[in-house]
Amino acid sequence: MVSSVHAEANASSALPVPAWRLGRHRLLVVLAVVAVTLPFVAGNGYFYDVAILVAFNAVVCVGLNLLIGYAGQVSLGHAAFFGLGGYGTALLASRYAWPSLVALGAAVVGVALLAFLVARPILRLRGHYLAMATLGLGIIVSMVLATEDRITGGPDGLQVPPLAIGTFAVGGEPLWYALAVGTLLLAVFVASNVVDSPAGRALRALHTSEVAAQVAGIDTARYKLFAFVLSAAFAALAGALSAFHAGFITPSSASFLRSIEFVTMVVFGGMASTAGAIVGAAVLTLLPQVLTSLRDYETIVFGALLMATMIFMPRGIVPTLAAVARSRGAR
After folding, report:
1. Burial level of 311, CB count in 10 A (0-12/13-18/19+)?
2. Does any domain span residue 317?
3. CATH of the domain at 186
């Protein structure tokens, strides 16, 4: 009898890899070249602030894309893990004087463990039931962070000490930019290796049809749990670094609207596409900055652009543009 591992690999290997997904090495090279080039084009303080925000959002979206885009499991409360990563790091570093890197690592591991415990019952649900369960999780975390004043500081939030690596304190926007980009490259490397592994093929099989995946011998519960925990760890890491960079953290980092922003970025850029997750995070982070000149009409124009994109590019920006390029190249 063939083992379940071999069955999972054989069944999932028949699934085509999405044609719009850039190869992992090419994507890493493109990101590295863009990251090195951009400061020479617009290397002012405002650029660094926005670029760092884009990188942290992209880290969350790369992880969330594994859960939504590849595993097909909807999460409407992922900002909870982002916020818990930041708060956990802030509490350990400021109140208990833990070294920055130790506090960061402990917070990420703690959030991953929480995600593991929560995911086991939640991921038994499907469809809109799963979406409602994750929404409830996000709301609970947001309310706890806002009301437990003695621990979290309440609505005013917490001060976060500077990030220190040994005796060296990370400071200055260029250095933070390098750290944020390096974190994004690491996230892309890990996600791309997962996608190209038998686990990634099993996730795509799960997304296509959970019943068919189970019949083929794939342990769907295990792979759903794996995608959920890994995406939560990505969010916690981004939340912790974001808190260090800002110097403070508030409950808004774990709000429902923040969760919706992350999901929108993944869908907007293109699900089941690591490049799409990054593009979605970049566009939807930069777009409000560009539209600020419209003042009272900013929200209206932003919403209209999102609607138009989803109407004319339902698969997302990257998959749609890649399909157009392939069709023109075939002529």
Report:
1. exposed
2. no
3. 1.10.3470
